[in-house]
């Protein structure tokens, strides 16, 4: 006896078609393929990057060019400033970056250092809010920038807030790279740093990503104990000692992150 309980006249109807737009999905995949390490692409490179046929990749690239998001020079396609509008839709309209702005600004004003807020996104710390201190030499972090989660103070705080299964899945697939002599590149060491971030409620890096730079990050936690983001600051080694960061910077970061967390 059949277990199908639908009326007889419904059982012959085909399943409704998906309402998704395959072409839009392909175009967005091509957009996401551009980045700091892939600033321009040919049709062949785009097809390989997003697992499309060359014909489909070419249609996506030409459509994005017609819409003003890309410009074509010979065989290569490059993003135009119009591409920034896609990110602005999140940065201007999303609740978290909007709520975070006064808190990163308050931290900047108290410490005299640039402050940032980042969220976890596909194995990276994605920076969604920032308050700058203008100096001749910048610390280099900008809105929309990404740092590898395993290597950054911000990323380790965010990883510490993930469910254990998700965190371990990430550690099984990540491929650490050495960028300075101080980089931590073994999975056991990285796991230890993440566990320390969870236990201590903050993380630091000392010239691990870039020589001459130190960073500190704390979690932004809501009333239910969920980690939504990480608030951080980076300083030049020649200007601020690690001892000063722990003594003076950590309380400010924690105070501003806690105030933001109470709104979430």
From TrEMBL:
GO biological process: 3,4-dihydroxybenzoate metabolic process; negative regulation of DNA-templated transcription; positive regulation of DNA-templated transcription
PANTHER family documented for this protein: HELIX-TURN-HELIX TRANSCRIPTIONAL REGULATOR, ICLR FAMILY, TRANSCRIPTIONAL REGULATOR
NCBIfam families, per the entry: pcaR_pcaU
PROSITE patterns referenced in this protein's UniProt entry, alphabetically: HTH_ICLR, ICLR_ED
Entry protein name: IclR family transcriptional regulator, pca regulon regulatory protein
Annotated keywords: DNA-binding, Transcription, Transcription regulation
Any GO MF annotation of the entry: DNA-binding transcription factor activity
Occurrences of domain IclR-ED (ranges): 82-264
Domain of life of the source: Bacteria
